Amino acid sequence: MGRGEIEIFRKFIPKCPYPIQKGSIQKMSPPEPDILCKLEDGEEKYFELVECVDAYLAESLSLKIPVGGFLPTDGQIWTEPLEKKFIKKYPKICELFAYYDRQPIIAENTWLLIMEDYIKNNLKRSQFKRVWIYSVPQERILFTYPNLGV
Question: Does 6 or 81 have the greater pLDDT score?
Answer without folding.
Answer: 6
